[in-house]
Amino acid sequence: MQAPTLQGERLLIVEDEPLIAVDLQLTLERExxxxxxxxxxxxxxxxxxxxxxSAGVIDFYVGSENAEPVCEALMRRxxxxxxxxxxxxxxxxxxxxxxxxxxxxAPKAIIGAxxxxxxPDVRDIIVxxxxxxxxxxxxxxxxxxxxxxxxxxxxxxxxxxxSVGADTSVAETVVATMTExxxxxxxxxxxxxxxxxxxxx
Length: 201
Hints:
Blueprint: E1 10-14, H1 18-30, E2 34-38, H2 41-47, E3 55-58, E4 61-62, E5 65-66, H3 68-76, E6 81-85, E7 100-102, H4 107-118, H5 120-163, H6 169-199
Parallel strand pairs: 1-2, 1-3, 3-6, 6-7
Antiparallel strand pairs: 4-5
Helix pairs in contact: 5-6
């Protein structure tokens, strides 16, 4: 299902290559869209707060910076977006629900992708998926970080006890178990990210 038209939609383009940016702007304006063009990440972050923004076309790398802060700003406002990028490898798993169009891509494919993410049903699915996937991965990351901190504190305590001749065998067993749990969480995180990525391909 697609939105029938881009007429009147307010679209943010984040692109630092002038020829590509202008060509994309003209393509979308011919479809009736109103275009805001950002050529730097700070500029894009300002435009991401524009109240009437409908969707975005994002180059994942703008100069030496990646566009994740812009993606996060759009996600918080539940504004859907697509990636139009020259990146050949996989993008961040946080945006696994986001359509990716490689450079170069025919204008009609970009138009079709925007209509796709702007259709009400698809837009709701993508926004919910981005929010849920991000929240899940953040929770796992937090648990891993807390586990690593506890292990490090226990290792310091074990070292201190060992220095005065105390038996630390039980504590060392606990540390080994906790280390295994953290590694299992890390593997679970990687699997969750891979599943999220595969689900939208």
